[in-house]
Design goal:
The complex is a heterodimer of chains A (579) and B (211). Chain A is mainly alpha-helical and 579 residues long. Chain A contains 24 helices and four strands. In chain B, the strands form two sheets. In chain B, strands 1-9-8-4-3-2 form a six-stranded antiparallel beta sheet. In chain B, strands 5-6-7 form a three-stranded antiparallel beta sheet, with no helix packed on it. At the A-B interface, helix 3, helix 4, helix 5, strand 2 and helix 10 of A face helix 1 and strand 3 of B.
Chain lengths: 579, 211
């Protein structure tokens, strides 16, 4: 083995390289306060590894970005974990950047001869924040889209060059295909490459001057290996543990509804920029977006020069503490305000509901137009139309069609299973007919049908019950409900008998109703009762002589009065029929 | 600044070294394994799509003895997406009926070596003209097999695989005959519509295996 290493060392000089790397001298010994740089290296490595793996599945276009991220998060095995690692490591990196900066400033490690290295670090800070900003947009969900829109609009307000800068960054006048492609090129190409180059320089300069020991005489000097390496490793392990905690608790990372420029979504940046967001509520835009952040950045860059004097060094620390406290306070106020804002909370609840819905729809496949188109097509679904136009009076299975409680008291029949045998069986029950579930809260409560049912269908003997069953089968068969097709075919004979009974002495439906070729038009026509054509007809105009005529209670003429389009009426009819 | 001295306790030093390596490996493995798991995701995933019958042509559109290439448009699921797309192509050949009575009852094998859905004792001349469907995918290495009018054969330009119009291979380049696809014979008999079940098979194997 030793011979092999001797051979390799002779060809490459590897032994000296390893010695150089491992046996750096640390005056005063290894310390926990020096770990932050290494934790940043570790998190950077995690981002590279997870980033490349995500790159194998991510598709950067407006029709496929959200869709491919959805697939990674919910369909790929281990996809949620990979994505979670990438997201939460990015989050914790912003904290580690601040800790690293704080240690460098407090310990005076920015002073001569380390000024240039300090500036490298400040640039690296900007580049990593740039990674966060560009990465946030890539899922193309509501959160990322709106947050980044605001950020690029602020960018666009830069004096002189703002307009062109914004167009170059977002690839046009509006967000679109080239926004994603440009942001992705920045996120996966330009920024990582720049960070690698600057990190190499940063480490080279750091090693050139060595650690700026806080207290060189507190303990014996140590080599980097193994003492500091162990401390660094433990710190990285702790960082990973925190990341894993969030990854598992959140089962990956959040994915909102697909980006929708036509929605009233409340834009918020990610938490580390909330302080700037909040600041802009108190000061003019130019001050809050350029003067204050720009001013702070310039002061940070000048720290090595200001810190030449002891008073200057104290000022630097004070500035850092002030900025961080201020930012912390603003962040806390921002979160608190949102938590106590009912409109914000209900808007977010609606956004969450949309997100849950589209994820469910996506299980059956997303069409080429993308997930947003799929979600928007739902706007005109049967349940949504019912909830909007019918649920002010009617109920559907006790709720508004979407599963929500009714806001107004039910004042028209429950329409779930309309024209089915089950529905009719309940309708002909004297107690049920006059209950709120059917006509109890309508003007038909004390009408002729109510009295008829009470007189004829209370306390039935077995023979009449059987006959009533046939009548129900016959009437229900008029609807030709797809869910009842088999039963209707099987009971064809009983249905014929039921039809006869409807005109006969005992039931005498045709004394008031028209049915097929007989009957009197004093009550709704029962021909084709519950069929698509009948349903669309009654929705069109319930006050038509074919239906309730002058006896119509309060049901609007949705078609005749132009309240709903033909297509909407058909959608509702189909849905009520279980199609 | 003092020079670093020898660690007083060699065991302690060894522990620190060992712990550093162990922790280093552990924290490195987590993102690596997460990445590898996702990279390997496609392996073993259930095959989606294809496998159902698609209407490709009507009998009266097919001239006897002339192969016709028909693209197969069907529902395609690709990762997150669903769409009606072209998923492949099929060669359809309507059988040329031999009117010479002496040749009515031929052995089914030399007429259709690639496979015959009729039972062996059915005479060749029944009311129903026979249609054969071949996958356009060359069973050698997957190129597109074309029809040559002059030579009246199926020919694959990649490595010169040649097939008779019955699908039988004419040289040893392809490991098997052209892949015949299932036709819904009931529908063909009742309506004259040619419904074909498009499937893909493994290339470069002598057995016709789902692929």
């Amino acid at each position: 083995m030793k011979n092999l290493i001797d051979w390799l060392d002779n060809r490459t000089g590897i032994r000296d390289l390893v010695k150089e790397g491992l046996y750096e001298n640390i005056p005063g010994g290894s310390r926990w306060r020096y770990v932050w740089g290494s934790t940043l290296m570790f998190t950077l490595a995690v981002q590279f590894i997870t980033g490349i793996a995500l790159w194998l599945a991510y598709s950067p276009s407006t029709q496929t970005a959200w869709e491919s991220v959805y697939y990674i998060q919910y369909q790929m095995t281990g996809g949620w974990f990979l994505r979670g690692l990438h997201h939460w490591t990015a989050q914790i990196m912003t904290v580690l950047l601040v800790l690293h900066l704080m240690q460098v400033v407090i310990d005076g490690a920015y002073k001569a001869p380390r000024e240039v290295n300090f500036w490298f670090g400040v640039i690296l800070l900007q580049l990593v924040l740039g990674l966060s900003l560009t990465g946030y947009l890539l899922p193309w969900d509501q959160k990322g889209y709106w947050a980044t829109s605001v950020a690029t609009d602020i960018m666009g307000s830069t004096p002189l060059i703002g307009e062109w800068l914004k167009q170059v960054v977002i690839g046009g006048h509006q967000y679109g295909h080239h926004t994603i492609t440009r942001f992705f090129a920045l996120h996966a190409g330009v920024l990582p490459a720049s960070i690698i180059a600057l990190t190499v320089g940063h480490i080279y300069l750091f090693r050139r001057h060595g650690v700026k020991a806080k207290d060189p005489y507190r303990a014996k000097d140590e080599h980097f290996w193994p003492g500091q390496v162990l401390k660094d490793a433990v710190a990285c392990l702790a960082v990973l543990a925190v990341v894993l905690f969030f990854v598992i608790r959140e089962h990956g990372a959040h994915l909102g509804s697909p980006a929708d420029p036509a929605s009233a979504y409340q834009a918020r940046p990610d938490w580390y920029f909330l302080s700037l967001f909040q600041l802009l509520k108190y000061v003019p835009q130019f001050v809050g977006a350029f003067i204050i952040p720009g001013g702070v950045m310039i002061l940070v860059l000048l720290m090595p020069l200001i810190g030449k004097w002891e008073l200057g060094h104290r000022f630097n620390i004070g500035l850092l503490v002030a900025v961080l406290s201020g930012a912390g306070a603003l962040t806390w106020v921002s979160i608190d305000q949102d938590n106590n804002d009912p409109k914000y909370k209900s808007d977010m609840a609606k956004a969450d509901a949309d997100a849950a819905l589209i994820k469910k729809l996506a299980e059956d496949g997303i069409p080429p137009e993308g997930a947003l188109a799929l979600l928007r097509a739902q706007g005109e679904s049967g349940p949504k139309l019912f909830a909007k136009h019918c649920a002010s009076c009617h109920a559907y299975g006790g709720n508004d069609g979407l599963g929500n409680k009714l806001t107004d008291e039910q004042s028209a029949p429950d329409l779930k299973g309309f024209a089915s045998r089950e529905h009719l069986t309940e309708l002909f029950d004297p107690e049920k007919f006059t209950s709120a579930k059917f006509f109890g809260n309508t003007k038909h409560e004390g009408g002729k049908m109510a009295n008829f049912i009470d007189d004829e269908f209370s306390d039935l003997d077995d023979a009449t019950k059987e006959d009533l069953g046939k009548v129900i089968m016959a009437l229900s068969a008029e609807a030709q409900l797809p869910t009842q097709a088999q039963a209707d075919t099987r009971d064809a004979k009983l249905i014929i008998e039921g039809r006869e009974l409807m005109g006969s002495e005992g039931f005498s439906c045709t004394d008031c109703h028209t049915f097929r070729r007989s009957g009197k038009p004093k009550a709704p026509d029962l021909t084709g009762y519950g069929s698509r054509e009948w349903m669309m007809g009654i929705l069109h105009d319930p006050g038509h002589d074919r239906f309730y005529g002058g006896k119509n209670d309060r049901m609007p003429a949705f078609g005749k009065d132009g309240k709903l389009t033909q297509e909407q009426i058909e959608t509702i009819a189909n849905w009520l029929r279980g199609e | 600044m003092s020079e670093p001295k020898e660690a007083p306790n060699e065991d302690r030093r060894q522990f620190i070294k060992g712990a550093s390596c162990a922790i280093g490996c552990a924290i490195g493995l987590v993102p690596m394994l997460a990445a590898v798991r996702v990279v390997l995701d496609p392996i073993g995933r259930e095959r989606v799509g294809g496998g159902s019958f698609t209407l490709l042509a009507n009998l009266d559109e097919l001239q006897p003895g002339k192969p016709v290439m028909v693209p197969v448009v069907a529902e395609k699921r690709d990762k997150w997406s669903i769409s009606e797309s072209v998923i492949g192509a099929v060669w359809l050949i309507r059988e040329k009926l031999d009117t010479d009575p002496a040749n009515q009852e031929g052995s089914p094998d030399d007429a259709n070596p690639a496979g015959d859905s009729r039972s062996p004792d059915e005479p060749a001349m029944k009311a129903l003209p026979h249609v054969t469907a071949f996958s356009s995918v060359c069973p050698h290495l997957g190129c597109f097999v074309d029809f040559r009018e002059n030579e009246n054969d199926f020919y694959c330009p990649c490595h010169n695989s040649k097939f008779e119009l019955t699908g039988k291979r004419m040289n040893d380049t392809p490991p098997r005959h052209m892949d015949e696809l299932e036709i819904d014979t009931d529908k063909l008999r009742d309506t004259g519509e040619v419904w074909v079940k498009y499937e893909r098979f493994k290339t470069n194997t002598s057995d016709k295996l789902p692929g």
